[in-house]
Amino acid sequence: EFAVARALKKSPHVAEVFCAPGNSGMAAIGVKATGIAEDDFKALKDFAIKEDIAWTFVGPEDALVAGIVDYFHAFDLKIFGPNARAAQLEGSKDYALQ
């Protein structure tokens, strides 16, 4: 996630970058850590609304498999990543074989 956050921060099209939960090293590149756990979908959704986040990028596979994209879409929030069903293909070899 650090490399993606750094690339987004360098983009002239991106004003601000937040990372959840983030770490202290992110501050060195101008990325703000939220401290919100990646599996706390409600807190992440509330943060995205409060901060008027234009797009959310999801790095952790576990959050994708757990359905964060579907959850954000239910609130009409823009998020980049596969829905839970599609994420299962990457997250579970058993699912992919079925």
TrEMBL record:
Domain of life the protein comes from: Bacteria
Record keyword Lipoprotein present: no
EC number: 6.3.4.13
Keyword Metal-binding: no
Domain Phosphoribosylglycinamide synthetase N-terminal: 1-90
SUPFAM superfamilies: PreATP-grasp domain (SSF52440)
GO MF annotation list: phosphoribosylamine-glycine ligase activity
InterPro entries (alphabetical): PreATP-grasp_dom_sf, PRibGlycinamide_synth, PRibGlycinamide_synth_N
Single GO BP term: purine nucleobase biosynthetic process
Keywords of this entry: Ligase, Manganese
Protein name: Phosphoribosylamine-glycine ligase
Organism field: Lactobacillus delbrueckii subsp. lactis
